[in-house]
Amino acid sequence: MNLKDELISRLRCPKTGSALHLAEGAERNARGDIDTGVLVNADGSAEYPVKGSIPRFVPASNYADNFGMQWNHFARTQLDSHSGHPISTERFWHATAWDPAGLKGKWVLDVGCGSGRFAEVALYAGAHVVALDYSSAVDACQANLQQHNSLHVVQGDIYALPFEPGSFDFVYSLGVLQHTPDVATSFASLPPMVTPGGRLCVDYYEKSWRSIFLSKYWLRPITKRLPKTTLFSALQKMVPSLLAISNLIGAIPLVGKQLRRMFPVANYSGLLPLSSDQVREWALLDTFDWLSPEYDSPQSEASARAMIEQAGMRNIEVLKAGHLVARGIR
Predict the structure, then answer these.
(1) CB 207: neighbour CB atoms within 10 A?
(2) Phi/psi of residue 111, nearest 5 degrees
(3) What is the mean pLDDT of the chain?
(4) Which of 34, 57, 59, 111 could bridge to 156 as Cys pair (CB 3.0-4.6 Å)?
């Protein structure tokens, strides 16, 4: 997959909002797609490199470094094409409630694509998918899905999205917004990207009275300050034992399932159709995902509704669909 001119026409300078053009000296492949080069804004005041066929609008290192590390290590773990189970597919369609046939040939923006678990679903539905992430996870996404000619990968900032407003028929951000510094500001950047009549879907970790019982919130004040490689190495050693203890707790009659939720390991035994090896892999991935992010701000139903209503969306729905989901039409 290489940078295509059809994507450049939708890109805008995140500093000035002006159109971008490709500077002389860019390297193209035999199909005419761009492999490396520099994008320049209208007055020449800003330049953005294209590296590895991906336009880069952010510094190489940023607050999402843990996610770059995470998704490059677990590059294929949550892709349905790798796991052999429609776990990501079912979550995507359950959260969005979109008609798969309606995505065919449409432009779709995936904000916070990670290694591409949901982008893969939209691509299989026939969409033109622009997969954006703040972290180096974009490299994993491109490597995973490069066989899809309708994939376009961009490294950019949700607070300064590098796109022409109203460019996308569908916009989604799943499992992402609670990990940004300011959730309300992050959400507010998304509705302007949706074409009139287009659809938006986001989800969040839910904030409720039950949240106080989740062990990750007791541990995060310590773990989020640890060097990410140190935390990851410790979890690699600890997760097998933590899973064994979690399974013992889960076997306690009547209260085991609830107590297991309080234990500090992501345990999908009996919840997802995974092999024992996959359970351990997903446990390490999601336990690291719980404990490593710099930001983790779950949202209440009221706050999720307030954000989407303030954006002027219509046909609004806020509901529990796995996570707390907010969706609507512009």
Answers:
(1) 18
(2) -100, 115
(3) 94
(4) 57
Q: Which helix (H) or strand (E) holds 303?
A: helix 301-310
Phi, psi of 214 (to 5 degrees): -80, 125
The DSSP result for 54-106, as a single string, is EEB-S-SS-TTHHHHHHHHHTTTTT-HHHHSS-HHHHHHHHHH---GGGGTT-
Report the distance separating Cα 33 and Cα 182, nearest Å: 36
Spatial separation of the C-alpha atoms in residues 206 and 320, rounded to whole Å: 9
C-alpha distances (whole Å) from 153 to each of 38, 57, 137, 227, 286 are: 15, 12, 10, 28, 24
Q: Closest by alpha carbon to 162, among 55, 7, 20, 12?
A: 12
For 296, which DSSP code? -
CB 162 within 8 A of CB 13: yes
Residue 92: half-sphere exposure toward Cβ, Cα within 13 Å: 25
Q: Kindly report the CA angle at 90 between 88 and 96, in degrees rounded to 5?
A: 100
- Amino acid 168 reads F
How far apart CA 89 and CA 96 sit, in angstroms, is: 11
Question: Computed from CA positions of residues 91, 94, 97, 99, in that sequence, does the dihedral angle turn out positive or negative?
Answer: positive
Token pair in block for residue 192? 């302007």
Q: How is residue 120 written in tokens?
A: 């893969």
Residues 178-235 have pLDDT tens digits of 999 999 999 999 999 999 999 999 999 999 887 778 899 999 999 999 999 999 999 9
pLDDT in tens, 20-44: 999 988 888 777 778 899 999 999 9
CA dist 77 → 97, 111, 124, 200 (Å): 24, 19, 18, 26
